[in-house]
Amino acid sequence: MVVTVIVIVAVVVILAIALITSYNRFVKQRNLIQESWRQIDVELHRRYDLIPNLVETVRAFAAHERHVFEEVARLRTQAQGVQGAAPEQRAQAETALSGALRQMMISVEAYPQLQSNQNFLNLQRELTDTEDRIAAGRRFYNANVGDYNTRIEAFPSNLIANGFKFEKAGYFEVEDAAVRSVPQVSFGTIGAVAGESAPPHVGPGQPSSGQVQPQMPGYEGQQNPQALPSYGPPNGGHPQQQYSGQQGQQQGQPSYGPPNGGQAGGPPAGPDRPQDGQPPFTG
């Protein structure tokens, strides 16, 4: 009986310790999320303070870009108006404001004098540093939110989360089209840059460019010269008489027609060759 009581007390103590540990961990994660969000909020306020000075500097050199300045001012006011809202709503307002700032920076490229202005360069550098700190704080905040939401959904920590009303936190994700866009690769462009052209398409049975396909007279339709038909010696002559003329042609010697002549295919008579039926010229 005493052992049973001791076992029950030990189980209750272990469960109480696990409950307290899990609850304290939820509280710690929730406070960490709130602290990381306050760091983001500080950088966002710093950006709100830099935007009016940046707009006034740009306006002095590009006064006719009025619609861009008005859009930036309107979106800045809209972002400041949702400071107490959920992170999802803040993210939407910040995405619109970032797009307007990017459009204003694109219009600045048409004014070389503005790009060399020291005041503008200082404001641009401070704005870039602020954007980098906002991005770093956003990554840290979203990582903490991911761990916290995972524990809320996992078992058995979800029992404690449901019992003590721990709710899931929202992510702060700014949609940046320039970062998420996929680069387009064109092999034709790469070849043009490298000074090379793409090889033409060669279909089956067609010779490639730069190669000469040999053609034999009378056998243009045959692709394999070895498959040409073999003919015997004319007029029933001995095969040696036929090949003697071919060997002479290969050695650079003149080839005479078949004797007893006048057969078609022989070379014409000349001053160095006798007519058919006449003795050769001896000089």
TrEMBL record:
A Pfam family per the record: LemA
Stretches that traverse the bilayer: 6-26
Signal peptide span: none
Keyword Membrane: yes
Location(s), subcellular: Membrane
Biased composition annotated in UniProt, kind: Low complexity: 203-218, 237-255
Main subcellular location: membrane
UniProt entry tagged with the keyword Ribonucleoprotein: no
Entry similarity comment: Belongs to the LemA family.
Name of the protein in question: LemA family protein
Source organism of this protein record: Kribbella deserti
